[in-house]
């Protein structure tokens, strides 16, 4: 099966990534992909209408993958599509990310009767072994691996204080969502870079017409958000 390549722009969860491909019409092409036949714990999510509780080991599994592949070139092959989502096998330095997650106990195996794929059978031995070893989400006391998230807005006590943060999302060149781990709580913040203004990103550029161009592998995109 043909493999495509892309640079990892964002790790939404341990099984869902946003990749950057070649430019088309001057716009960098992006594709959101999901690992085939796997489901990893979901992170805390808050919006205007909903708030989803974080699942055990969601942060640990996401960080395990994020630290490994963020900004790196990965290869992937499309296994199947379902509900307008693309499910793939993803490889970093020839390591199958699905297998790595199963070995750590960071994922469950999911079958879908509506699609045909050999991926489930290929991954099943690693899933069975993880359950037998009781690692990760199959272990004991996993509820202790859930963060208490606090959203922090306009906290005057933090003015001019330097915090060590993890960038969760880059909306554009001057607007970030960051995560700061503190002793009392885990905080999420919206950050605006002072004194600059950048072009706003087109919110509709998760284009499925992804163009694979080997000449761009490993290169940083010129778009401010990608930079």
TrEMBL record:
One of its GO terms (biological process) is mRNA catabolic process. One of its GO terms (cellular component) is cytosol. It comes from the Eukaryota. InterPro entries: SNase_OB-fold_sf (IPR035437), Staphylococal_nuclease_OB-fold (IPR016071). Pfam families: SNase. Residues 2-140 form the TNase-like domain. SMART domains: SNc (SM00318). One of its GO terms (molecular function) is nuclease activity. This is TNase-like domain-containing protein. It comes from Plasmodium falciparum RAJ116.
């Amino acid at each position: 099966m043909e493999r495509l390549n892309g640079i990892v722009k964002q790790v939404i969860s341990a099984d869902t990534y946003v990749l950057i491909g070649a430019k088309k019409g001057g716009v960098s092409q992006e594709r959101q992909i999901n690992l085939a036949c796997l489901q990893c714990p979901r992170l805390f999510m808050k919006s205007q209408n909903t708030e989803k509780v974080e699942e055990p080991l969601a942060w640990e599994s996401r960080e395990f993958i994020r630290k490994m592949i963020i900004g790196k070139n990965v290869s992937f092959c499309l296994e199947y599509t379902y509900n307008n989502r693309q499910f793939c096998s993803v490889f970093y330095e020839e390591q199958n990310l699905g297998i790595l997650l199963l070995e750590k106990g960071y994922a469950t195996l999911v079958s879908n009767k509506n699609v045909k794929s050999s991926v489930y059978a290929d991954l099943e031995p690693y899933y069975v072994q993880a359950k037998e070893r009781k690692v990760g989400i199959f272990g004991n006391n996993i509820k202790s691996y859930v963060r208490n998230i606090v959203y922090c807005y306009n906290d005057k006590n933090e003015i001019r204080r330097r915090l060590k943060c993890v960038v969760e999302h880059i909306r554009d060149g001057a607007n970030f969502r960051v995560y700061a781990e503190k002793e009392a709580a885990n905080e999420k913040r919206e950050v605006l870079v002072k004194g600059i203004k950048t072009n706003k990103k087109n919110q509709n550029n998760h284009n499925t017409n992804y163009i694979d161009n080997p000449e761009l592998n490993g290169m940083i995109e010129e778009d401010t958000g990608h930079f």
